[in-house]
Amino acid sequence: MIVTTSALFKLAYGQYAVGAYNINNMEQALGLFQGHLDAQAPFIVQISKGSRKYAGIPMIEAIIRAAENMFPDAIYAVHLDHGDEKTCYDCIDSGFYSSVMIDASHEPFEGNIATTRRIVERAHARGLSVEAELGQLGGVEEDIKVDEKNARLTNPNEATDFVKRSGCDSLAVAIGTSHGAYKFKGHQSLHFDVIEAIQKLLPGFPLVMHGSSSVPVEEVRRINAAGGKLDPSACGVDENEFARAASMGVTKVNIDTDGRLVWTRVHRENFRDFPETFDFRKPGEIFVKEYAAFIVHKSQKLGSAGRLSAVRKALS
Ligand code: G3H
Ligand code: 13P
Ligand code: ZN
User: Could you say which of 81, 103, 169, 256 is catalytic?
Assistant: First the structure.
């Protein structure tokens, strides 16, 4: 059942975070839906501009509709990830999406507000909610000067002003994470001080954490042992910090890179161990199973596991 993103956020806020996963193909969809049923967790399916281009818009939407038929008990929202203005309008008008993200974080503050406001007006008129972004996503090294650190992370006062004036429904905040496999040098914690300050100023308002993959050392090691050449210093977010972040208003946690690592590990190991084979369905089947198990694990860390019956009751 496709539900609104705002309904999921209302139920989750302060208690757990909803996992938001990017999909690009059939195998990811099968593992994603199966894993969330196994975990009994609600979730968000994310489609990026890259995915719309790779699979084709009709194909990626058809994959999700087919998964809906195959997994009728799943409860999820469909979200555009990192949209520009035009893609947001396309998705709003398509009638398929629950919510869109307008990523105008590269614009100056006033420009970001104005762009987000335009999307919000069109989205709200069609019953969709809008995620916006404020701050510069990026790992902040420990030895960086305080002023520079603060300049990169989301400023809590600006966040309050931004939310009030743009009318957005959730906000992606810069709290030390970044996209991809190389987030930090050494172990780093989320900037809980920033999350806490934002939550104090915006109580009850859902925050979004991008760049939330944990990039497990063991996954990187196995990929490299099977012929990969990932930098072994690859490092991500400590997934044991999800629960604390969720209790402070982080309601949506975006994960993509970790799923790509599962895909890469499964396929590299399979082709290494069975070099004489060429039936892509063999590694494909293993990937679906492994990805479903990965989703169960993430749902436990996010606190979303076991919530499905309460969500169903509240939404029906
Ligand atoms: O944050 C971006 C997501 O990982 C999606 O990546 O734009 O390559 O589809 P993509
Ligand atoms: P990762 O690269 O850490 O998986 O982040 C994904 C993301 O933020 C998608 O919007
Ligand atoms: Zn992102």
Answer: 81
| Ordered alpha helix ranges (H), 102-249 | 109-125, 146-152, 156-166, 192-201, 217-225, 242-247
Is the CB–ligand 2 distance for residue 210 below 6 Å? yes
CA 134 – ligand 3 centroid, Å: 12
H or E stretch covering 101 = strand 99-102
Q: Find the 255 Cα to ligand 2 centroid distance in Å.
A: 5
d(CA 141, CA 144): 6
- Per-residue model confidence as pLDDT tens for the chain (316 residues): 999 999 999 999 999 999 999 999 999 999 999 999 999 999 999 999 999 999 999 999 999 999 999 999 999 999 999 999 999 999 999 999 999 999 999 999 999 999 999 999 999 999 999 999 998 777 655 555 555 556 589 999 999 999 999 999 999 999 999 999 988 877 789 999 999 999 999 999 999 999 999 999 999 999 999 999 999 888 899 999 999 999 999 999 999 999 999 999 999 999 999 999 999 999 999 999 999 999 999 999 999 999 999 999 999 8
Query: Are 40 and 75 contacting, i.e. CB atoms less than 8 angstroms apart?
Result: no
CA 223, chain centre distance (Å): 23
Q: Which domain holds residue 82?
A: 5-315
Based on the residue annotation, tell me whether 81 is a catalytic residue of this protein: yes
Whether ligand 1 lies within 6 angstroms of the CB of 213 is answered as no
Judged by DSSP in three states, 267 sits in helix
Ligand 1 touching residue 22 (CB < 6 A): yes
- Nearest 5°: the CA angle 174, 49, 213 is 40
Report phi then psi at 259, rounded to 5: -65, -35
Count of the separate structural domains present in the chain:
1
Q: What is the pTM of this model?
A: 0.96
Q: What is the CATH number of the domain that holds 142?
A: 3.20.20.70
